[in-house]
Amino acid sequence: MAKVEEYKLFPGCTIGNRIPFIEASARKVFDKLGIKTSDAAFACCPDPVGFNSVDHTSWLAMGARNLTLAEAEGKDIVSLCNGCFQTLKLVNTELNHNEHEKEKINKILKGVGKEFKGSINVKHFVEVLHDNGLDKIKEFVTHDFSGLKVACHTGCHYNRPSEIVQTDDPMEPVKLRELVAATGATPIDYAEEMLCCGSGVGNAEEAPSMQLLANKFSSAVKAGADVFVVICPACFQQMDTNQKKAGTQSNNEFNIPILYLTELIALSFGMVPDELGLKFHRARLTEFLEKNGLK
Amino acid sequence: MVMIDYELKKRVMDAHIHDALKYCYQCNRCTDVCPVADLAPNRYNPRNLILNSFLGLRENIFGGDDSFNIWGCTMCDTCDEICPQKIELTGVFTILKNMSIALGEGPEYYTIQASAIYDSGKAIPPQPAIERRREQLGLPKVETPNLEEVKTILNETKLNKIINK
Protein backbone atom coordinates (compact mmCIF):
# COMPACT_ATOMS: atom_id res chain seq x y z
CA MET A 1 0.00 0.00 0.00
CA ALA A 2 0.95 3.60 -0.46
CA LYS A 3 3.65 4.84 1.86
CA VAL A 4 3.48 8.61 1.37
CA GLU A 5 2.30 10.24 4.58
CA GLU A 6 -0.29 12.43 2.93
CA TYR A 7 -3.83 11.46 2.09
CA LYS A 8 -6.01 12.49 -0.79
CA LEU A 9 -9.00 14.10 0.91
CA PHE A 10 -12.37 12.87 -0.36
CA PRO A 11 -15.06 15.17 1.13
CA GLY A 12 -17.80 13.94 -1.25
CA CYS A 13 -20.69 15.78 -2.89
CA THR A 14 -22.90 16.25 0.17
CA ILE A 15 -20.23 17.77 2.38
CA GLY A 16 -18.50 19.73 -0.39
CA ASN A 17 -21.56 21.11 -2.13
CA ARG A 18 -24.21 21.22 0.57
CA ILE A 19 -22.87 21.23 4.15
CA PRO A 20 -19.29 22.51 3.78
CA PHE A 21 -19.05 23.54 7.46
CA ILE A 22 -18.36 19.86 8.18
CA GLU A 23 -15.37 19.98 5.85
CA ALA A 24 -14.16 23.11 7.68
CA SER A 25 -14.12 21.30 11.03
CA ALA A 26 -12.42 18.24 9.53
CA ARG A 27 -9.64 20.27 7.89
CA LYS A 28 -9.02 22.23 11.10
CA VAL A 29 -8.86 19.07 13.21
CA PHE A 30 -6.54 17.34 10.73
CA ASP A 31 -4.26 20.41 10.70
CA LYS A 32 -4.06 20.50 14.47
CA LEU A 33 -3.27 16.78 14.64
CA GLY A 34 -0.69 16.94 11.86
CA ILE A 35 -2.68 14.74 9.46
CA LYS A 36 -1.71 15.94 5.98
CA THR A 37 -4.15 15.95 3.07
CA SER A 38 -4.35 17.31 -0.45
CA ASP A 39 -7.23 17.71 -2.89
CA ALA A 40 -8.01 16.20 -6.28
CA ALA A 41 -10.66 16.71 -8.95
CA PHE A 42 -12.74 13.74 -7.82
CA ALA A 43 -16.18 13.13 -9.28
CA CYS A 44 -19.08 11.70 -7.24
CA CYS A 45 -17.81 8.56 -5.44
CA PRO A 46 -20.62 7.52 -6.66
CA ASP A 47 -23.36 7.06 -4.05
CA PRO A 48 -23.55 3.41 -2.89
CA VAL A 49 -27.26 3.73 -2.08
CA GLY A 50 -28.35 5.74 -5.12
CA PHE A 51 -26.08 5.24 -8.11
CA ASN A 52 -25.16 1.61 -7.42
CA SER A 53 -28.88 0.81 -7.36
CA VAL A 54 -29.25 2.32 -10.83
CA ASP A 55 -26.39 0.51 -12.56
CA HIS A 56 -23.70 -1.51 -10.84
CA THR A 57 -21.25 -1.38 -13.77
CA SER A 58 -21.45 2.41 -14.04
CA TRP A 59 -20.89 2.61 -10.28
CA LEU A 60 -17.79 0.40 -10.51
CA ALA A 61 -16.36 2.36 -13.44
CA MET A 62 -16.89 5.78 -11.85
CA GLY A 63 -15.52 4.58 -8.51
CA ALA A 64 -12.49 3.08 -10.24
CA ARG A 65 -11.86 6.36 -12.07
CA ASN A 66 -11.71 8.19 -8.74
CA LEU A 67 -9.31 5.59 -7.37
CA THR A 68 -6.98 6.05 -10.35
CA LEU A 69 -6.60 9.76 -9.45
CA ALA A 70 -5.18 8.81 -6.04
CA GLU A 71 -3.18 5.93 -7.53
CA ALA A 72 -1.48 8.39 -9.90
CA GLU A 73 0.00 10.12 -6.84
CA GLY A 74 0.57 6.94 -4.85
CA LYS A 75 -1.56 8.21 -1.97
CA ASP A 76 -4.28 6.60 0.11
CA ILE A 77 -7.69 8.22 0.27
CA VAL A 78 -9.31 9.51 3.46
CA SER A 79 -13.06 9.93 3.20
CA LEU A 80 -15.14 12.24 5.36
CA CYS A 81 -18.32 10.37 4.43
CA ASN A 82 -19.61 6.86 5.13
CA GLY A 83 -21.09 6.56 1.65
CA CYS A 84 -17.99 7.64 -0.26
CA PHE A 85 -15.89 5.46 2.00
CA GLN A 86 -18.04 2.39 1.41
CA THR A 87 -18.19 2.91 -2.35
CA LEU A 88 -14.45 3.44 -2.80
CA LYS A 89 -13.56 0.59 -0.45
CA LEU A 90 -16.04 -1.81 -2.08
CA VAL A 91 -15.01 -0.91 -5.62
CA ASN A 92 -11.32 -1.22 -4.71
CA THR A 93 -11.92 -4.63 -3.13
CA GLU A 94 -14.26 -5.98 -5.81
CA LEU A 95 -11.84 -5.08 -8.61
CA ASN A 96 -8.82 -6.37 -6.70
CA HIS A 97 -10.50 -9.73 -6.10
CA ASN A 98 -12.26 -10.24 -9.40
CA GLU A 99 -9.98 -10.33 -12.47
CA HIS A 100 -12.93 -10.57 -14.83
CA GLU A 101 -14.58 -7.41 -13.46
CA LYS A 102 -11.26 -5.60 -13.34
CA GLU A 103 -10.62 -6.38 -16.99
CA LYS A 104 -14.11 -5.22 -17.93
CA ILE A 105 -13.75 -1.94 -16.02
CA ASN A 106 -10.24 -1.29 -17.33
CA LYS A 107 -11.54 -1.70 -20.87
CA ILE A 108 -13.99 1.12 -20.12
CA LEU A 109 -11.33 3.27 -18.43
CA LYS A 110 -8.99 2.81 -21.38
CA GLY A 111 -11.34 5.11 -23.31
CA VAL A 112 -10.28 7.95 -21.00
CA GLY A 113 -6.63 6.94 -20.80
CA LYS A 114 -6.82 5.47 -17.31
CA GLU A 115 -6.15 2.10 -15.73
CA PHE A 116 -7.20 0.79 -12.32
CA LYS A 117 -4.24 -0.86 -10.63
CA GLY A 118 -5.46 -1.45 -7.09
CA SER A 119 -2.35 0.09 -5.58
CA ILE A 120 -3.82 2.30 -2.84
CA ASN A 121 -6.03 1.94 0.22
CA VAL A 122 -9.20 3.75 1.22
CA LYS A 123 -9.80 4.88 4.79
CA HIS A 124 -12.64 6.34 6.80
CA PHE A 125 -11.67 9.46 8.75
CA VAL A 126 -12.64 7.71 12.00
CA GLU A 127 -10.00 5.04 11.31
CA VAL A 128 -7.42 7.71 10.53
CA LEU A 129 -8.17 9.69 13.70
CA HIS A 130 -8.19 6.52 15.79
CA ASP A 131 -4.93 5.20 14.28
CA ASN A 132 -3.36 8.60 14.77
CA GLY A 133 -3.90 8.10 18.49
CA LEU A 134 -6.43 8.92 21.19
CA ASP A 135 -3.63 10.45 23.26
CA LYS A 136 -2.86 12.91 20.46
CA ILE A 137 -6.43 14.16 20.73
CA LYS A 138 -6.33 14.34 24.54
CA GLU A 139 -3.16 16.42 24.24
CA PHE A 140 -5.02 19.27 22.53
CA VAL A 141 -8.25 19.22 24.54
CA THR A 142 -8.76 22.52 26.31
CA HIS A 143 -12.53 22.64 26.70
CA ASP A 144 -14.19 20.74 29.51
CA PHE A 145 -16.94 18.51 28.09
CA SER A 146 -17.22 16.31 31.16
CA GLY A 147 -20.84 15.46 31.84
CA LEU A 148 -21.90 15.90 28.22
CA LYS A 149 -23.95 12.82 27.33
CA VAL A 150 -23.36 11.76 23.75
CA ALA A 151 -25.44 9.31 21.73
CA CYS A 152 -22.98 7.92 19.18
CA HIS A 153 -24.35 7.04 15.76
CA THR A 154 -21.89 5.48 13.33
CA GLY A 155 -24.40 4.92 10.54
CA CYS A 156 -24.39 1.75 8.47
CA HIS A 157 -21.69 2.18 5.85
CA TYR A 158 -18.80 2.85 8.21
CA ASN A 159 -18.58 -0.68 9.54
CA ARG A 160 -20.56 -2.92 7.18
CA PRO A 161 -20.08 -5.18 5.28
CA SER A 162 -17.40 -5.91 7.86
CA GLU A 163 -15.63 -8.58 5.84
CA ILE A 164 -14.73 -5.92 3.29
CA VAL A 165 -14.53 -2.58 5.10
CA GLN A 166 -12.71 -3.98 8.17
CA THR A 167 -12.98 -0.82 10.22
CA ASP A 168 -14.62 -1.89 13.44
CA ASP A 169 -17.03 -4.39 14.96
CA PRO A 170 -20.05 -4.64 12.59
CA MET A 171 -22.68 -4.51 15.35
CA GLU A 172 -20.83 -3.05 18.34
CA PRO A 173 -18.39 -0.48 16.96
CA VAL A 174 -16.03 1.09 19.52
CA LYS A 175 -13.81 3.60 17.72
CA LEU A 176 -16.34 6.44 17.60
CA ARG A 177 -17.11 5.94 21.30
CA GLU A 178 -13.40 6.03 22.13
CA LEU A 179 -12.85 9.20 20.10
CA VAL A 180 -15.81 10.90 21.79
CA ALA A 181 -14.47 9.83 25.19
CA ALA A 182 -11.06 11.28 24.26
CA THR A 183 -12.66 14.74 24.08
CA GLY A 184 -13.84 14.32 27.67
CA ALA A 185 -17.51 13.79 26.79
CA THR A 186 -19.39 10.65 27.83
CA PRO A 187 -20.72 8.19 25.24
CA ILE A 188 -23.97 6.70 26.55
CA ASP A 189 -25.68 3.39 25.86
CA TYR A 190 -29.04 3.56 24.13
CA ALA A 191 -31.14 0.70 22.81
CA GLU A 192 -31.27 1.79 19.16
CA GLU A 193 -27.61 2.74 18.74
CA MET A 194 -27.25 0.46 15.73
CA LEU A 195 -30.53 1.42 14.07
CA CYS A 196 -30.23 2.95 10.60
CA CYS A 197 -31.15 6.67 10.41
CA GLY A 198 -33.65 5.82 7.67
CA SER A 199 -32.07 7.93 4.94
CA GLY A 200 -31.89 5.03 2.44
CA VAL A 201 -35.52 3.99 2.52
CA GLY A 202 -36.45 7.69 2.46
CA ASN A 203 -35.41 7.81 -1.20
CA ALA A 204 -38.39 5.57 -1.91
CA GLU A 205 -40.89 6.59 0.75
CA GLU A 206 -41.00 9.13 3.54
CA ALA A 207 -43.16 7.53 6.24
CA PRO A 208 -40.96 4.50 7.10
CA SER A 209 -37.88 6.73 6.94
CA MET A 210 -39.38 9.11 9.52
CA GLN A 211 -40.49 6.20 11.69
CA LEU A 212 -36.96 4.77 11.84
CA LEU A 213 -35.61 8.20 12.73
CA ALA A 214 -38.26 8.69 15.43
CA ASN A 215 -37.49 5.29 16.96
CA LYS A 216 -33.81 6.14 17.08
CA PHE A 217 -34.40 9.57 18.62
CA SER A 218 -36.91 8.28 21.21
CA SER A 219 -34.39 5.71 22.35
CA ALA A 220 -31.62 8.30 22.72
CA VAL A 221 -33.91 10.73 24.55
CA LYS A 222 -34.93 7.98 26.95
CA ALA A 223 -31.27 7.32 27.68
CA GLY A 224 -30.71 11.01 28.47
CA ALA A 225 -28.65 12.05 25.43
CA ASP A 226 -27.69 15.73 25.20
CA VAL A 227 -26.41 15.46 21.62
CA PHE A 228 -25.92 12.98 18.80
CA VAL A 229 -22.45 12.62 17.33
CA VAL A 230 -22.36 11.33 13.75
CA ILE A 231 -19.73 10.50 11.12
CA CYS A 232 -21.77 10.46 7.90
CA PRO A 233 -23.26 13.45 6.02
CA ALA A 234 -26.32 11.47 4.89
CA CYS A 235 -27.08 10.56 8.51
CA PHE A 236 -26.26 14.16 9.52
CA GLN A 237 -28.74 15.61 7.05
CA GLN A 238 -31.45 13.10 7.89
CA MET A 239 -31.04 13.68 11.65
CA ASP A 240 -30.46 17.43 11.52
CA THR A 241 -33.05 18.37 8.90
CA ASN A 242 -35.78 15.82 9.48
CA GLN A 243 -35.97 15.50 13.26
CA LYS A 244 -38.85 17.97 13.45
CA LYS A 245 -40.87 16.06 10.86
CA ALA A 246 -40.07 12.72 12.48
CA GLY A 247 -41.29 14.17 15.76
CA THR A 248 -44.55 15.45 14.30
CA GLN A 249 -45.27 12.14 12.59
CA SER A 250 -44.71 10.16 15.79
CA ASN A 251 -46.32 12.55 18.29
CA ASN A 252 -42.98 13.54 19.74
CA GLU A 253 -41.05 16.75 19.88
CA PHE A 254 -37.36 16.31 19.24
CA ASN A 255 -34.78 19.00 19.73
CA ILE A 256 -31.37 17.36 19.86
CA PRO A 257 -28.26 18.96 18.36
CA ILE A 258 -26.45 16.82 15.81
CA LEU A 259 -22.68 17.25 15.86
CA TYR A 260 -20.22 15.82 13.39
CA LEU A 261 -17.39 14.08 15.24
CA THR A 262 -14.91 16.61 13.86
CA GLU A 263 -17.08 19.46 15.19
CA LEU A 264 -17.06 17.99 18.69
CA ILE A 265 -13.29 17.50 18.52
CA ALA A 266 -12.76 21.03 17.15
CA LEU A 267 -14.84 22.51 20.00
CA SER A 268 -12.90 20.43 22.52
CA PHE A 269 -9.70 21.90 21.04
CA GLY A 270 -11.00 25.36 21.86
CA MET A 271 -12.08 26.38 18.37
CA VAL A 272 -15.05 28.73 18.35
CA PRO A 273 -18.53 28.12 16.88
CA ASP A 274 -18.19 30.95 14.35
CA GLU A 275 -15.07 29.63 12.64
CA LEU A 276 -16.79 26.22 12.38
CA GLY A 277 -19.98 27.63 10.84
CA LEU A 278 -22.13 25.98 13.50
CA LYS A 279 -24.90 28.51 12.79
CA PHE A 280 -25.64 26.58 9.59
CA HIS A 281 -27.04 23.63 11.51
CA ARG A 282 -30.81 23.22 11.23
CA ALA A 283 -31.31 21.83 14.74
CA ARG A 284 -30.25 24.89 16.72
CA LEU A 285 -27.18 24.60 18.89
CA THR A 286 -27.86 27.73 20.98
CA GLU A 287 -28.90 25.89 24.13
CA PHE A 288 -26.09 23.36 23.84
CA LEU A 289 -23.47 26.09 23.36
CA GLU A 290 -24.77 28.14 26.30
CA LYS A 291 -24.94 25.13 28.61
CA ASN A 292 -21.39 24.20 27.73
CA GLY A 293 -19.96 27.67 28.12
CA LEU A 294 -19.26 28.08 24.42
CA LYS A 295 -21.29 31.24 23.91
CA MET B 1 -49.00 -21.11 -14.21
CA VAL B 2 -45.75 -20.14 -12.53
CA MET B 3 -43.08 -18.90 -14.92
CA ILE B 4 -39.43 -19.39 -14.06
CA ASP B 5 -37.02 -16.78 -15.39
CA TYR B 6 -33.67 -18.54 -15.83
CA GLU B 7 -31.90 -15.31 -16.76
CA LEU B 8 -32.86 -13.80 -13.38
CA LYS B 9 -31.76 -17.00 -11.61
CA LYS B 10 -28.42 -16.90 -13.39
CA ARG B 11 -27.81 -13.23 -12.63
CA VAL B 12 -28.39 -13.58 -8.91
CA MET B 13 -26.50 -16.88 -8.67
CA ASP B 14 -23.53 -15.44 -10.59
CA ALA B 15 -23.24 -12.64 -8.05
CA HIS B 16 -21.91 -15.13 -5.54
CA ILE B 17 -18.69 -17.03 -5.66
CA HIS B 18 -19.39 -20.71 -5.02
CA ASP B 19 -23.12 -20.13 -5.46
CA ALA B 20 -23.59 -19.21 -1.78
CA LEU B 21 -27.15 -18.25 -2.57
CA LYS B 22 -28.26 -21.83 -3.15
CA TYR B 23 -27.42 -22.65 0.46
CA CYS B 24 -30.09 -20.28 1.76
CA TYR B 25 -32.32 -22.38 4.00
CA GLN B 26 -34.83 -19.62 4.63
CA CYS B 27 -34.04 -19.30 8.32
CA ASN B 28 -35.50 -15.77 8.32
CA ARG B 29 -32.66 -14.13 10.25
CA CYS B 30 -32.46 -11.44 7.52
CA THR B 31 -36.09 -10.50 8.01
CA ASP B 32 -35.74 -10.71 11.80
CA VAL B 33 -33.06 -8.02 11.82
CA CYS B 34 -34.39 -5.86 8.98
CA PRO B 35 -35.52 -2.49 10.37
CA VAL B 36 -37.89 -1.90 7.45
CA ALA B 37 -39.50 -5.36 7.62
CA ASP B 38 -40.06 -4.59 11.29
CA LEU B 39 -42.09 -1.48 10.39
CA ALA B 40 -43.80 -2.76 7.26
CA PRO B 41 -43.86 -6.58 7.42
CA ASN B 42 -46.48 -6.90 4.69
CA ARG B 43 -44.63 -4.73 2.23
CA TYR B 44 -40.96 -5.58 2.61
CA ASN B 45 -39.49 -9.01 3.35
CA PRO B 46 -35.84 -9.76 2.47
CA ARG B 47 -36.19 -13.52 3.04
CA ASN B 48 -39.04 -13.65 0.58
CA LEU B 49 -37.14 -11.52 -1.92
CA ILE B 50 -34.16 -13.88 -1.78
CA LEU B 51 -36.44 -16.92 -2.20
CA ASN B 52 -38.16 -15.47 -5.25
CA SER B 53 -34.79 -14.42 -6.70
CA PHE B 54 -33.09 -17.78 -6.61
CA LEU B 55 -36.21 -19.57 -7.76
CA GLY B 56 -36.39 -17.13 -10.68
CA LEU B 57 -39.98 -16.17 -9.89
CA ARG B 58 -39.83 -12.88 -11.74
CA GLU B 59 -43.52 -12.06 -11.49
CA ASN B 60 -43.36 -12.17 -7.71
CA ILE B 61 -40.67 -9.49 -7.75
CA PHE B 62 -41.35 -7.12 -10.65
CA GLY B 63 -44.39 -5.53 -12.23
CA GLY B 64 -46.51 -5.23 -9.08
CA ASP B 65 -48.47 -2.18 -7.96
CA ASP B 66 -45.99 -1.46 -5.20
CA SER B 67 -42.24 -1.55 -5.91
CA PHE B 68 -41.59 -1.13 -2.18
CA ASN B 69 -41.03 -4.91 -2.10
CA ILE B 70 -37.63 -4.06 -3.67
CA TRP B 71 -37.04 -0.40 -2.79
CA GLY B 72 -37.99 -0.73 0.86
CA CYS B 73 -34.39 -1.86 1.45
CA THR B 74 -32.64 0.94 3.34
CA MET B 75 -29.18 -0.50 2.49
CA CYS B 76 -28.11 -0.85 6.13
CA ASP B 77 -26.27 -4.13 5.36
CA THR B 78 -27.47 -5.66 8.63
CA CYS B 79 -28.86 -8.76 6.88
CA ASP B 80 -25.45 -9.35 5.24
CA GLU B 81 -23.80 -9.45 8.65
CA ILE B 82 -26.36 -11.72 10.26
CA CYS B 83 -26.78 -14.32 7.48
CA PRO B 84 -25.46 -17.68 8.78
CA GLN B 85 -24.76 -18.76 5.18
CA LYS B 86 -22.75 -15.62 4.40
CA ILE B 87 -25.03 -14.57 1.60
CA GLU B 88 -24.49 -10.98 0.52
CA LEU B 89 -28.14 -10.13 0.38
CA THR B 90 -27.51 -6.47 -0.39
CA GLY B 91 -25.56 -7.54 -3.50
CA VAL B 92 -28.57 -9.53 -4.71
CA PHE B 93 -30.88 -6.62 -3.95
CA THR B 94 -28.63 -4.32 -6.00
CA ILE B 95 -29.15 -6.61 -9.01
CA LEU B 96 -32.92 -6.49 -8.47
CA LYS B 97 -32.82 -2.71 -8.14
CA ASN B 98 -30.78 -2.39 -11.36
CA MET B 99 -33.41 -4.53 -13.12
CA SER B 100 -36.26 -2.52 -11.60
CA ILE B 101 -34.68 0.73 -12.88
CA ALA B 102 -34.23 -0.78 -16.36
CA LEU B 103 -37.94 -1.68 -16.30
CA GLY B 104 -38.79 1.90 -15.35
CA GLU B 105 -40.23 0.77 -12.01
CA GLY B 106 -37.77 2.49 -9.65
CA PRO B 107 -38.48 5.57 -7.52
CA GLU B 108 -37.81 8.83 -9.34
CA TYR B 109 -35.09 9.86 -6.86
CA TYR B 110 -32.66 7.33 -8.29
CA THR B 111 -32.81 8.38 -11.92
CA ILE B 112 -32.76 12.06 -10.98
CA GLN B 113 -29.55 11.55 -9.00
CA ALA B 114 -27.96 9.46 -11.79
CA SER B 115 -28.86 12.21 -14.23
CA ALA B 116 -27.14 14.83 -12.04
CA ILE B 117 -24.01 12.67 -11.91
CA TYR B 118 -24.11 12.23 -15.70
CA ASP B 119 -24.42 15.99 -16.26
CA SER B 120 -22.18 17.45 -13.54
CA GLY B 121 -20.08 14.54 -12.30
CA LYS B 122 -21.62 15.13 -8.87
CA ALA B 123 -24.73 13.81 -7.13
CA ILE B 124 -25.10 17.32 -5.73
CA PRO B 125 -23.93 19.88 -8.31
CA PRO B 126 -22.14 23.04 -7.15
CA GLN B 127 -24.38 25.96 -6.15
CA PRO B 128 -23.30 29.64 -5.97
CA ALA B 129 -24.68 30.11 -2.41
CA ILE B 130 -22.67 27.16 -1.10
CA GLU B 131 -19.57 28.30 -3.01
CA ARG B 132 -19.83 31.63 -1.18
CA ARG B 133 -20.29 29.83 2.12
CA ARG B 134 -17.14 27.78 1.42
CA GLU B 135 -15.26 31.01 0.87
CA GLN B 136 -16.56 32.46 4.15
CA LEU B 137 -15.38 29.33 5.93
CA GLY B 138 -11.94 29.64 4.37
CA LEU B 139 -12.35 26.49 2.31
CA PRO B 140 -10.69 25.97 -1.09
CA LYS B 141 -12.83 25.79 -4.23
CA VAL B 142 -14.17 22.32 -5.06
CA GLU B 143 -12.15 21.12 -8.04
CA THR B 144 -14.35 20.36 -11.03
CA PRO B 145 -14.03 16.78 -12.26
CA ASN B 146 -13.21 16.13 -15.90
CA LEU B 147 -16.74 16.02 -17.33
CA GLU B 148 -15.59 14.72 -20.71
CA GLU B 149 -14.22 11.64 -18.98
CA VAL B 150 -17.36 11.18 -16.90
CA LYS B 151 -19.58 11.29 -20.02
CA THR B 152 -17.29 9.00 -22.01
CA ILE B 153 -17.38 6.41 -19.22
CA LEU B 154 -21.12 6.61 -18.67
CA ASN B 155 -21.92 6.42 -22.38
CA GLU B 156 -19.69 3.36 -22.61
CA THR B 157 -21.59 1.68 -19.73
CA LYS B 158 -24.82 2.76 -21.48
CA LEU B 159 -26.06 4.67 -18.46
CA ASN B 160 -27.30 7.31 -20.90
CA LYS B 161 -29.72 4.73 -22.36
CA ILE B 162 -30.83 3.50 -18.94
CA ILE B 163 -31.75 6.98 -17.75
CA ASN B 164 -32.79 8.31 -21.19
CA LYS B 165 -30.14 11.00 -21.57
Write a concise synopsis of the structure shown.
The complex is a heterodimer of chains A (295) and B (165). Chain A is of the alpha/beta class. Chain A has 17 helices and eight strands.
Report what the structure shows:
The complex is a heterodimer of chains A (295) and B (165). Chain A has helices at 12-17, 20-33, 51-54, 56-71, 82-97, 99-110, 125-132, 134-140, 162-165, 175-182, 199-202, 206-222, 233-241, 243-249, 261-268, 273-276, 286-291; strands spanning 7-10, 37-38, 77-79, 122-124, 149-153, 186-187, 227-230, 258-260. Chain A is of the alpha/beta class and 295 residues long. Chain A has two domains: 7-125, Up-down Bundle (Glutathione S-transferase Yfyf (Class Pi), Chain A, domain 2); 142-291, Rossmann fold (3-Layer(aba) Sandwich). The longest helix of chain A has 17 residues, at 206-222. With 165 residues, chain B is mostly helical. Chain B folds into two domains: 6-102, Alpha-helical ferredoxin (Fumarate Reductase Iron-sulfur Protein, Chain B, domain 2), CATH 1.10.1060; 111-162, no CATH class. In chain B, 53% of the residues lie in helices and 0% in strands. Chain B contains eleven helices and no strands. Chain B has helices at residues 6-14, 29-33, 35-39, 46-55, 68-71, 78-82, 89-102, 108-120, 128-136, 147-156, 159-162. Chain B is globular and about 60 Å long. The model of chain B has no long low-confidence stretch (mean pLDDT 95). Classes of the chains: A alpha/beta (295), B mainly alpha (165). At the A-B interface, helix 1, helix 2, helix 3, helix 4 and helix 11 of A face helix 3, helix 6, helix 7, helix 8 and helix 9 of B.
